Amino acid sequence: MNMEPVGTPVPVAEPQGKDVGSSPERIMSEAGNTTDKKPHSSDPLKETPVQDKEEDKPAGLEPPVDWFEPLEEDDNDEVESLAGESEMSVSGAGSEKNHLKVHKFQQPRRKRSSPEEGWDVWPILGDGWKRKEVIRRSGSSIGQKDVYYISPKGDRVRSRVELTSVLEGVDLSTFEYKSGRFIPGGVPPTRVRIRAKRKIPESSSSESSFVERGEGTDTPDSLHRLTPNLGPKTVPSQPTVWLAQSTVVIPTQQYEYPPAEKEIKLPLPSSSRALPLPSINGDISSEENTLVCSRCGISFTGTWYDKQRKRPFCPTCWAASKTKVHPMVRFRKWIPCGQCVGCLNTVNCGHCANCKNGLQSPESRKRLCRGRKCICPIRKSPGSGGFVPQQPYNEIPDTFEDCLSFQSEVTDSQHLSLKSSDTENFSINVDIDDDDDMSTDDDDDWHKKRKRRSCGDCKACQCRIDCGTCDFCADKPKFGGSNKKRQKCRLRQCQRQAMRHLLPYQRGQKDPGSENLWLPGRPRTYNTYSRKSGLKKGKGPSGLDFTDNEDEDSNLQAMNWNPEMTSADSLSYELNVRNHQSSMQSNHLDFELNGLPDRVPHTSSDNNNSELDQLSRLDAEKLHADRHGPKCGEEDDDEDDDYYEEEEEEEEDELPIITQIFSMADSQVSSGVDSENQLMKLLQALRSTVMPILWYAILVNGPQLQIIQCSKQSNLTDAIVLIDPGFCYQVTVQKQPLLPTHPLYDKYPAHLTSATEVVNLLLGLEEYVVCQGLPPKDPLLRTGPIILERASTCDFLVKKKVSICSNCRALQGL
DNA sequence: GCCAACGTTGGC
DNA sequence: GCCAACGTTGGC
Question: Which nucleotide is closest, CA of A447 to its C1'?
Answer without folding.
Answer: B10
